[in-house]
Model the fold of this input.
Amino acid sequence: MTADEARKLHEAMSWYGVLGTPAPVSPADPTGEWGIYRDAADGSRLDVTEEARSAVEAARLRQPQRGFVIPQAG
Done:
């Protein structure tokens, strides 16, 4: 994904509480491909791009739709 796509995904992740940080796939090439990462216990970084996309999509589907709830007289 591009840097702009990574930024937009990160905004959605923040909104839904999904953890991860956008960063270039190759730190030496910030204009290239980007991904979403988490730090591993050993100090390396884990690519969680697909998990982040899936989590954001699932969170979006759980959101209530706009509308009105009309109680039934009973």
